[in-house]
Write a structure and sequence with these properties.
alpha/beta; globular; Rossmann fold
């Protein structure tokens, strides 16, 4: 790893959603493997994002390094964790990002537990993985039901042993105006699935991740975790909550052998987006192709993100030796919002 030193700072304001957000930009140097070097460039400004206190009052604080969006660059995390013989759990595995991720992980050598509520869709994903030469098993799991999660954990142990990686992908997106009668129920439902569902699964399988000291998790958030959008306040709130949870958990678990990453894709070409396209077509009178094009134009790149691209980033985050990395996918590029921290090796004598 190359040497680092402090550099001077000049104001740099990254425009985001109508608000000016000061950011620190960190340089990336290293070998072909992408070794990270935390040297700040003369583009950052804000020295105040210090992260959560990791030790008793009076002790020094650790920082989660944040990268400016002024100049997106290639992602710096290196793949030091081998994939072969790892067991991965993917929630929401019955289609879209879940299926693409299951294929990517199995293609890298992992045994994949494809989980969800719809047995037929799960079986279709499992067959797709097996047809590609991978190893996968269906695992019925409802992220809103603690008993279902515990049962799935026991089944996983009996079937393949402890889980090494968790991909919290299950989610739901429902639009509702703030003045609508269903605003309350829609907000609660999305918080229960998108935030609490991911949290329940991660915490239930956390003992597995801690067991061998090389556990990893990736939370599938959304651009709605970074920005505000009209008519999806409940969805945006749930994804903001998930991102905040992941940031804090990454700090708390560093030194215990567990790393956490987050992906924040804009609109992805998945069945969930197909449902949004159908709603747009129904409300505007456009045909489906016009509605899909209008939705794609909302992405900074002017096109929908591919599920395979999201899966590729998820795999790299799981293989990374950094924790706390947050990646935004726009449809045309990958932006590293936060660079994370190098994982501190697990200490057997620690708590």
């Amino acid at each position: 790893m190359c040497a680092t030193k402090r550099a001077g700072f000049q104001p740099c304001m990254a425009r985001r959603g109508g608000f000016d957000w000061p950011r620190r930009q960190w340089a990336t140097h290293g070998s072909a493997e992408g070794v990270f070097c935390g040297q700040p460039r003369v583009c950052g400004s804000w020295d105040g994002l210090r992260g959560m206190r990791l030790s008793p009052a009076g002790a020094s604080r650790r920082k989660i390094r944040r990268r400016s969006r002024c100049e997106p660059r290639s992602l710096p995390y290196s793949a030091h964790v081998m994939t072969a013989d790892h067991v991965a759990l993917v929630t929401g595995g019955g289609g879209g990002i879940g299926t693409a991720t299951s294929l990517a992980l199995a293609g890298a050598g992992a045994t994949v537990l494809v989980s969800g509520r719809d047995e037929l869709r799960l079986q279709a994903s499992v067959e797709a993985v097996r047809s590609a030469g991978g190893v996968a098993h269906p695992l019925c799991l409802d992220v809103c039901d603690g008993a279902s999660i515990r049962d799935a954990r026991e089944q996983a142990l009996e079937l393949v042993g402890p889980v090494d990686w968790v991909v919290a992908n299950a989610g739901v997106a429902i639009s509702a105006a703030l003045t609508s009668d269903e605003a309350e129920s829609v907000a609660r439902q999305q918080m229960d699935v998108n935030y609490h569902g991911a949290r329940r699964v991660f915490e239930a399988f956390l003992p597995h991740l801690l067991k061998h000291g090389h556990g990893r998790a990736v939370m599938v958030a959304s651009s709605a975790a970074l920005l505000g959008y009209p008519y999806i306040t409940g969805y945006a709130a749930s994804k903001h909550a998930l991102l905040g949870y992941a940031r804090s958990a990454a700090l708390e678990l560093n030194g215990k052998g567990v790393g956490i990453g987050v992906v924040c894709p804009h609109y992805v070409d998945t069945p969930m987006t197909d449902a949004s396209v159908a709603r747009i077509a129904d409300k505007t009178g456009r045909d489906h192709e016009q509605a899909r094009a209008a939705l794609a134009e909302l992405n900074p790149g002017g096109k929908l993100v591919e599920a395979d691209e999201v899966a590729s980033v998820i795999l790299r985050l799981l293989q990374s030796d950094l924790s706390g990395v947050v990646v935004e996918l726009t449809g045309s590029e990958q932006r590293e919002i936060e660079s994370g921290l190098p994982l501190v090796p697990h200490s057997p004598g620690g708590d």
